[in-house]
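Quick start: what a row looks like.
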Amino acid sequence: MLLNFPRIESDNKPSSPSKDNYCDITEQDILNDKYVIDKYIGEGAYSQVWRAVDKSNKNKLVALKVCKSNKKDNQSGLNEYNMLKTLNHENIVKVYNGFYYKSSTGKHFVVVMEYLGDTLAKCKHYFRGDYDDNSSNNVNKSVIPDVILKKIVKQLMCAVEYLHNSKKIIHTDIKLDNILLTKRMDKIKSLDDFNIKLVDFGTSHYTNDKLDFMIGTFEYNSPEIILGYPYNTSTDIWSCGCIVAELITGYCLFDYSYYYESNEHYSNGSEETDSSSVSTLYSNETDEEDEDIYHIENLLLGMMIKVLGKMPVKLLKRGKYFEVYFTNKGKLRYEPMFLSEDTLYNLFATNYKFDFANAHKYTNLLSLMLNNNPEKRQTAKKILKHQYYNNL
């Protein structure tokens, strides 16, 4: 299979780095006496990523993840470095070094990793047609061609199976932005070149560590994370299911922003909320941020129920925040009546016009990963044995 991806100009012109709380570095600065800053790549919640040239290793390109100078963010970087040092898998990013760097903005922990290509988020947008007016999402076809999709899903499941079974690690933040191609898209010429690696282990932890429910990204968080129910490796499987659905359709499965940012039920305050319930989420005092979180998570729970069916009340009742969102009988206290979601099968068959065979194939695959009951989700090891991967 020959592939020919043109250079995506919009992806190669990242915005300027933020200054607030980030490390004060610029191009041509030298870190640790050998890493010459070459190019700004992007930033996340606790760090910025720069491309650099390693003068000590034949001018090899590397990625430097430079954490903010506060203790919490530096700890996330140190956690990522220490965890990556223990990992050795072809579908997980390699780490080379870790050190502290002092600048005018303070002391920053720096993680040195292999330099990779585009994120799967950018890859999805290319196939969806966002960067090419001549591209289109044909009916009855996944946005990412099925032969490529199979390879992506298999490699992702292999990485997750390694983390869960061999290393007893929960990633906690698997999403399209945290899965990178090993090559830039314009360098990919065949299916053999199309490979992925899982990155961003800043909030990852071992299965026997203390749980932290302030993890993940809203759109990819499992119901147990929202409800404060003790989670395990199956929360990663849920995130993987959300990713696969997005690569098939081109759109986020649980995109709460469609309702939250534009629907008048939330924007004009007509959807009343019990402030005392909202305040129990994180503090004794209600503030605007807590109410935002409440509305977003309530929307997500409503969408999950529409797509996947009722929540397992007897199980999830043990969740710390269950009563904030649900009545004792398992009904949402503030049910969003305006949701347009449908079941997974109907999503594929009706919304995206897949024929019976394809709608059934993708529904069957996703049902292994997406289940409101965490105990009924399949492990990565079992998912890898699914017939979907035949002839790959």
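That is the whole record. Residues 120-389 form a domain with the Transferase(Phosphotransferase); domain 1 fold (CATH 1.10.510.10). DSSP finds 14 helices and ten strands in the chain.
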